[in-house]
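Minutes, project huddle
Topic: does the predicted pose make sense with zinc ion bound?
PN asked that the exact inputs be recorded in the minutes so nobody has to dig through chat later. Recorded below.
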Amino acid sequence: MSTVITNIGELVTNDPAAGDGLGVIRDAALVIEDGTVAWTGPAAGAPATDESFDAAGRAVLPGFVDSHAHLVFAGERAEEFAARMSGQKYAAGGIRTTVERTRAASDDDLRDNLRRLIGEMARQGTTTVECKSGYGLTVEQEERAVRIAAELADEVTYLGAHVVPAGYDTAAYTRLAATDMLSACAPHARWVDVFCEQGAFDADQAREVLQAGIKAGLAPRLHANQLTQGPAVQLAVELDAASADHCTFLSDADVDALASSRTVATLLPGVEFSTRQPYPDARRLLDAGATVALATDCNPGSCYSSSMAFCIAVAVRDMHMTPAEAVWSATAGGARALRRTDVGHLTPGARADVHVLTAPSHIHLAYRPGVPQTAAVWKHGHRVG
Ligand SMILES: [Zn+2]
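Predicted holo structure (tokens), as shared on screen:
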């Protein structure tokens, strides 16, 4: 089965060979065959196919790559959000509320909620989803979370070291997260992550878990410098982590370290929006030469939005990214943060993750914030939205 999407006003390919960031082709067509992109180019030259879809002059983008989300949970925290908006400060401890509800939920409840959120994302153009554990915090519960995540998410991250559960001292819990819990979770995950922050895990504890994860065959990523200018970004670079996530409070040395490494700075502006914190300085990172990704951090506490378009709008309006930079970071940047070469771009051979907008240009994602602008979505060549 082959399908041509034709009459594309603006095709964003993210082709690095194009040399202009988004690699835009005007008046384009794109052919999907066997789940991959088989051809792109001027519409007039498109080969014959079994089916065709008329994009009616609108923009077509690679599906969003949401490289940071916490989707295996039960229970929402709307009241906590309302309290925070009334002046209460955000602290990492709110996670414990979700832990209680998640532990009490059935496998089916967790699976249904995960499926609901991944579906919600797909209908907004997100075709690659990373999903973390971290609301179980026992060997059995963390194993359950990564096992269920692996059924539905594209990328699975073991985040046993999310917060220290009640009844543990941090050193003892760190040991558990680096030994028995890790062994139970590693078969279901590709990544190991730690929330390295005051009130969670310090750099030595994070290093212990991440190095044990690396030994178990997982690759590191890190919640870094979200609330304070701590040591986590340096640790991420030291361990060649794929991504340092949040990067809200950075020293000059942190920016230099990111710019001269393979570690992507993943910015999560929905969190700062939802916790009323200062935004990370995307301009400083980009100007220094760091690779920047945008992701939602979708979770029931600090940001309950699954909208990558919203992240793009905030990144442009309040973090001084250009629309082109923000769209690249939400697609190709996310792919870099997951060390994936098959997604985040629309060049021949890529996975056919295709996002047709209702708008004529990628700029509209920031220009028309809050407005649904997804017309059609293919994931791996299948219509999902
Ligand atoms: Zn997170």
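Observations noted during the meeting:
- Residues 64-337 form a domain with the TIM Barrel fold (CATH 3.20.20.140).
- Residues 8 and 354 are 12 Å apart (CA to CA).
No decisions taken; revisit at the next huddle.
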